[in-house]
């Protein structure tokens, strides 16, 4: 008889415990909010997690497990469980009836990109400690990490004698159609700018002094194709370096009030809406940085097809800076022909040895030591 009573009591406890856990889950409101969702690498985001029990019944045991993508981590938290491509963080607590609890913590990320922090896994224990239920609460957060911004001086550039902000601007905007005079040669001048007749007459090296085109805008074309087969084996480090350089130069240009646009043959990662692969001309640096942060690491089309599509929209009032570590013969031919037709094109060469060339087009070789 006693045995039967024990069994019946145990069954009742299990039933009551299960119903209790179910009601507890349905009465629990849990949500996370962030103080910002766009950051630079290494910057912190503060997350506030709010748990609210709308019933009078307490929840004696609550295990909260948060799944975060690889690259996102909790600041000052050593209890990280790594499984596959995710990091998991757990916390234990209990919550009384009609109680609201807030917990704040910080997360960070060191690498450019778009990261999704998804649903929260919750485990409940009943009042008897006999059963545990697992549920999932929907709570989706999107984090965009901008590319790192560097001073132009930190980039190791090789191009005759070009270096520093002023000469970068000169390289982009100096218009060889407008010569306003001659001046004495200095170490930063190119040999091709020497005015030989004046040099012979004055018995010292003199160079052409060009005027600057002040009404130009700049469009960076970021090529994420790093080899012939664009679907496999693209080098993430090449792409990140291209984007980092573009963002840094864009910051400099925007400060001067120069409109900047960014084009790419990659997808633009966004959960909420479809984004085109072009950032239109703007002087809003945040727009440019967010666009650069969202650029995927793999191209969705070969660079020759992309250039062929976009060439119809190119303007003589814009300087187009082609940023790439790879170029095929078809794209090279297209770029050279566009340049001959009056479209101003410059080349940023990120290949390992600076072997990229476009006939008649000036280039800077951006070396790998930064």
TrEMBL record:
InterPro entries: DUF58. Residues 182-349 form the DUF58 domain. It comes from the Bacteria. Pfam families: DUF58 (PF01882). PANTHER family: DUF58 DOMAIN-CONTAINING PROTEIN, SLR1927 PROTEIN-RELATED. This is Uncharacterized conserved protein, DUF58 family, contains vWF domain.
């Amino acid at each position: 008889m006693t045995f039967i009573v024990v069994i019946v009591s145990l069954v009742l406890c299990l039933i009551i415990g299960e119903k209790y856990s179910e009601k507890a889950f349905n009465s629990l409101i849990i949500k996370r909010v962030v103080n910002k969702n766009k950051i630079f690498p290494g910057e912190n985001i503060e997350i506030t997690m709010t748990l609210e029990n709308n019933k009078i019944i307490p929840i004696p045991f609550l295990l909260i497990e948060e799944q975060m993508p690889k690259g996102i981590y909790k600041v000052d938290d050593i209890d990280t469980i790594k499984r596959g491509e995710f990091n998991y963080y757990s916390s234990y607590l209990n919550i009384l009836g009609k109680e609201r609890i807030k917990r704040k913590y910080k997360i960070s990320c060191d690498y450019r990109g778009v990261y999704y922090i998804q649903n929260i896994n919750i485990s409940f224990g009943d009042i008897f400690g006999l059963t545990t239920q697992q549920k999932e609460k929907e709570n989706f957060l999107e984090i965009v990490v901008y590319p790192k911004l560097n001073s132009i001086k930190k980039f190791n550039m090789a191009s005759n004698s070009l270096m520093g902000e002023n000469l970068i601007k000169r390289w982009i905007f100096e218009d060889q159609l407008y010569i306003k005079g001659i001046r004495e040669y200095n170490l930063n001048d190119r040999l091709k700018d020497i005015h030989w007749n004046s040099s012979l007459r004055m018995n010292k090296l003199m160079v052409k002094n060009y005027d600057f085109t002040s009404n130009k805008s700049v469009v960076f074309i970021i090529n994420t194709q790093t080899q012939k087969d664009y679907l496999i084996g693209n080098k993430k480090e090449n792409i990140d370096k291209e984007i980092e350089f573009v963002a840094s130069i864009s910051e400099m240009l925007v400060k001067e009030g120069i409109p900047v646009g960014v084009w790419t043959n990659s997808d633009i990662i966004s959960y909420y809406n479809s984004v085109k692969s072009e950032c239109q001309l703007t002087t809003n640096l945040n727009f440019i940085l967010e666009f650069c942060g969202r650029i995927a690491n793999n191209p969705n089309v070969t660079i020759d097809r992309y250039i062929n599509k976009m060439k119809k929209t190119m303007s003589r009032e814009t300087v187009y800076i082609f940023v790439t570590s790879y170029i095929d013969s078809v794209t090279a031919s297209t770029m050279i022909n566009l340049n001959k037709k009056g479209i101003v094109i410059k080349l940023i060469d990120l290949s390992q040895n600076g072997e990229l060339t476009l006939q008649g087009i000036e280039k800077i070789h951006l070396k790998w030591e930064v």
